[in-house]
Fold this sequence. Notes:
By secondary structure, the protein is mostly beta strands. 0% of the residues lie in helices and 49% in strands. It is built from no helices and eleven strands. The strands form two sheets. Strands 2, 4, 5, 6, 9, 10 and 11 form a seven-stranded mixed beta sheet that branches. Strand 5 and strand 6 form a beta hairpin. The radius of gyration is 14 Å and the shape is globular.
Amino acid sequence: QVQLVESGGGLVQTGGSLTLSCAASGITFSSYAMGWFRQAPGKERESVAAISRSASSTYYTDSVKGRFTVSRDNAKNTVYLQMNSLKPEDTAVYYCAARFTPRPTTPSRRFSPGDMNYWGKGTLVTVSS
């Protein structure tokens, strides 16, 4: 049974930091590119960041470039999202997701929700002004 379990969300003030973690089980983690998505109330789910199988390449949506960092530890089957300089507009439920990627050299890219094979249940990040 595949499980992706996010943790690390919470309430933080504007300018603060949080680190999200996503622990995977039931998959060969190193065979999957990983993505972070978020969904704010009344809005569509959007791609935030992504990382290739080997962590050799990453993708960030423009609104988080320079503030968020995605990383992974294949030995721990875990992907992370370090979020700095948080803004109220970052408030959302954050989801991690996995996409099977057979070629190890495939670079990271912006994923659409429909690209992903497995999803976590999400963790809420609230940034107060």
